[in-house]
Design brief:
Number of helices: 19
Number of domains: 1
Oligomer: single chain
Number of strands: 0
Helix content: over 70%
Structural class: mainly alpha
Largest sheet: none
Strand content: under 5%
Order of helices and strands: HHHHHHHHHHHHHHHHHHH
Radius of gyration: 25 Å
Distance between the termini: 45 Å
Length: 395
């Protein structure tokens, strides 16, 4: 009787334990699905807003003009064609802002020669311009430019969803989506600029590297410099991390060398004014005309540019604070032994120094310029963390 009672009690306890595990696993599966749905709905909402309420900004005017440049006979014709595209889609308030909101915009509206001189800083985004021209016969230039922000934004969201699913960290979507929004995911989708296309290609490269597919990741990194040549900073940061963390360096070194050669060729063929002239224009004092603009180099002037960038970043942007939080999170996860293999640590290190390197190479304050680095760090760290809101694992 005693043995039988022990057996009955043991079976009851085992059954209760099994039922408890099943309940927790069911709760976890439900929260995983809820996290995935939360991310998906957030992405679709951002994409819908970007399509319905696109931001007709100054950069859009310049990119449209650059796409038209190969068929315009002179500056006046190019100016008229570019503004005709913008005026067709922009509302009255956007059109007024683009033409009359400040002395620089007014000058670009009134002086076709000055307007065309600005395009040397836009031609270097050769893949973006090529895609605009490719889509133009089907959608028109304005819609093509909007699509090249909205469609990559959806792609970024789906990539994040796939990444979290692979990492069994779908509940991390509750933390990842707010992070993406803080680092300008929504604004980048509405703004008609190549940054979201760059984010898609770069994050796909980081995902491939995270999964150990070095050559695929490096191929995507090489492609990214044709969208924005300054993404070579990311490649260089990954190369440094590969050396310091004893990872395979050959694929990244070959990629960096090829990307460097490509960037030099793109700059020369596109008539780019050079790093210092562009730095002066963007970080020190805007110029109505870039024709023949070749300011004398000055350490004091360069320092002013960095101070301005740092002050504006800290006062009006989120990327410095997010970088600090993510680095702290990395340290905590590493201390708890949650970071896994050296590859994940190497990626986070590369993205952290890449963020600082991006600012050091060109101290622009806007969050969108650091989106790839912050979003990439967030994805790697959430994947290592694997948060469980159901309480079935360490949080």
């Amino acid at each position: 009787m005693e043995g039988s009672s022990h057996t009955v009690i043991g079976r009851a306890l085992a059954t209760a334990a099994a039922e408890g595990v099943i309940r927790r696993l069911t709760r976890r599966a439900a929260l995983d699905r809820l996290g995935g749905l939360f991310l998906l709905l957030g992405v679709l909402a951002v994409a819908a807003y970007g399509w319905l309420r696109p931001d007709y900004n100054w950069d859009m005017v310049a990119y449209v003009a650059t796409a038209l440049e190969n068929r315009a006979e002179d500056a006046e014709t190019l100016h008229a064609q570019a503004w005709a595209v913008i005026e067709e889609g922009a509302d009255e308030a956007q059109e007024y802002h683009l033409k009359f909101s400040n002395p620089y915009n007014l000058n670009q509206w009134e002086n076709p020669e000055d307007f065309q001189s600005q395009l040397s800083m836009y031609r270097v985004k050769v893949a973006y311009i090529w895609l605009l021209r490719l889509l133009e016969p089907f959608t028109g230039l304005a819609a093509a430019a909007i699509l090249l922000s909205v469609v990559p934004a959806i792609g970024v969201g789906l990539l994040c969803l796939c990444w979290l699913w692979r990492a069994q960290a779908l509940q991390g979507a509750f933390f990842l989506l707010p992070l993406l929004l803080l680092t300008d995911y929504s604004r980048m989708t509405s703004a008609v600029v190549p940054d979201m296309l760059l984010a898609l290609v770069s994050l796909a490269a980081l995902y491939a590297l995270w999964r150990g597919r070095e050559w695929l990741g490096c191929g995507l990194l090489f492609a990214s410099v044709f969208v924005r040549p300054d993404n070579i900073v990311l490649i260089f940061a990954i190369l440094i991390a590969a050396v310091l963390f004893n990872r395979r360096t050959l694929p990244v070194f070959v990629t960096f060398l090829a990307a460097f050669i490509a960037c030099v060729a793109i700059s020369r063929l596109g008539g780019h004014p050079g790093w210092w002239a562009h730095f002066y224009f963007s970080c020190v004092e805007i110029q109505n005309s870039m024709a023949g603009f070749n300011p004398e180099f000055s350490l004091l002037t360069m320092l002013k540019g960095y101070v301005r960038g740092a002050v504006v970043s800290l006062q009006f942007n989120d990327w410095p604070a997010l970088l600090a939080v993510l680095v702290a999170g990395w340290a905590l996860l590493a201390r708890q032994g949650r970071m896994g293999n050296a590859g994940a640590n190497a990626l986070v290190f590369a993205l952290a120094i890449g963020t600082l390197g991006k600012f050091a190479s060109f101290p622009l304050p806007d969050d969108r310029f650091y989106f790839v680095f912050i979003a990439g760090m967030g994805l790697v760290l959430v994947s290592a963390w694997q948060p469980r809101l159901s309480g079935t694992a360490a949080t």
